[in-house]
Amino acid sequence: MQVTETLSEGLKRELSITVPAADLAGRLDKRLAELKDTVRINGFRPGKVPTAHLKRLVGPQEMAKIVDTVIGESIRVALETRDERPALNPDIDLAEGVAAEKVVAGEADLVFTASYELLPTFEIQDWTGVELERPVVEVGEDEVDARVAQIAESNRPFVDKTEGAAATGDRVKIDFVGSIDGVPFENGSAEDADLVLGSSTFIPGFEDQLIGVSVGDEVTVTVTFPADYGAAHLAGKEAAFAVKVKAISAPGELVVDDEWATKLGLESLARLREVVKEQIGSQYAAATRTKIKRALLDKLDEQYRFDLPSKLVDGEFDNIWNQAQQEMTGAGKTFADEGTTEEAARADYRKIAERRVRLGLVLSEIGEKREVKITDEEVSRALIERARQFPGQEKQVFDYYRSNDMALATLRAPIFEEKVVDLILAEAKVTDKPVTKDELLADPDEA
């Protein structure tokens, strides 16, 4: 095998690799010798098929397989010899003037080029001196009170209202069919739907028009969908709902005590409050984690500057851009609605893609240097969580990931990243900073 470097520009490399036809022919002869003792061909006893005849029958197919194998092996050996790590699998092109048919026929050397980009090399910066503030919020009793009140309200008993019209706070059971310009629209109808008047559950204005109705009434409710409504085909449009009132219930007495808590599956009201406090604390902890991780990544982004493999950046940009376009299409918005242009948006998303690739390489290098490992148990837990997102299709999800290494890598990557982040945070200078709930939950990008 002969390897010649034909391009060395930044991270880009191109190798011309030649494998002599004699080497390919030798491999084919060895393969045919193996097949001769096992292949069954009409008119010949096992092991007695003439090699020349066998070569005419299966030679081209076997040589094609050999060529694929040799290309992969040649690239691997070349990269190991050069001590290089490609960012992605090399692109392969047969040399011009070399007919693939002749190579397969054993009449020409295998000559091809392998084009790839190297993973950049850079020095890991010391992070032990990085100063970070961890925003923390203490869960107050007033928050626990409010959450318990919400739970209680959502579990309030209702009693049938035999007399009088529906009032704010009453629950009505209704059938409805929504239409726009006389044409029913998708997901705009339901039967036996329960609606508490005044809960602001439905489109603004819908519940107000049901105050005063009685059982058996059939009314038309006319509302206008908000301009920012999630379904773009409905946003800003006026709709008419044909509503039939089937039952009205009045809110019953609600007593928040131990007996009520036991109905929710807990032994006491005190235990319910503990559970609620833990839940709120977990939500705050998740927000804290997001904030300090963002701050850490910002610090790392400031520390590192190196050339990036363009194909990695292109791939990340395409993912971001496609997602952004899907979200805009779903919301029925344009770049102008967002106060920008497509060109400016592309430039911004390109920077985000570059940041993600850069930080991904940095975290990967740190994890490799510090020998961060992912256990099979951790991957299994991630796979179980993934499968839970597809009720009824769990087996298909398990089969897909277990038979697809690339898919399984998408589960391993975030686990690896979080473990590296934990490693850095454990050694950096992190101080807790008490903040308010609003400060913790504020979106840093809103400004």
UniProtKB/TrEMBL annotation:
UniProt main location, coarse: cytoplasm
Class in the EC hierarchy, top level: isomerase
**Which InterPro entries is this protein grouped with?**
PPIase_dom_sf, PPIase_FKBP_dom, Trig_fac, Trigger_fac_C, Trigger_fac_C_sf, Trigger_fac_ribosome-bd_bac, Trigger_fac_ribosome-bd_sf, Trigger_fact/SurA_dom_sf
Q: Where is the PPIase FKBP-type domain?
A: 169-251
Example of a GO cellular component annotation carried by this entry: cytoplasm
Arranged from A to Z, the UniProt key words for this protein are: Cell cycle, Cell division, Chaperone, Cytoplasm, Isomerase, Rotamase
Quote the catalytic activity from the record: [protein]-peptidylproline (omega=180) = [protein]-peptidylproline (omega=0)
Q: Does the keyword Secreted apply?
A: no
Q: Output the SUPFAM superfamilies linked to this UniProt entry.
A: FKBP-like, Triger factor/SurA peptide-binding domain-like, Trigger factor ribosome-binding domain
Which terms does the record give in the GO molecular function aspect?
peptidyl-prolyl cis-trans isomerase activity; protein folding chaperone; ribosome binding
Name the HAMAP family for this protein: Trigger_factor_Tig
Q: Family membership, please give it.
A: Belongs to the FKBP-type PPIase family. Tig subfamily.
- What is the designated name of this protein? Trigger factor
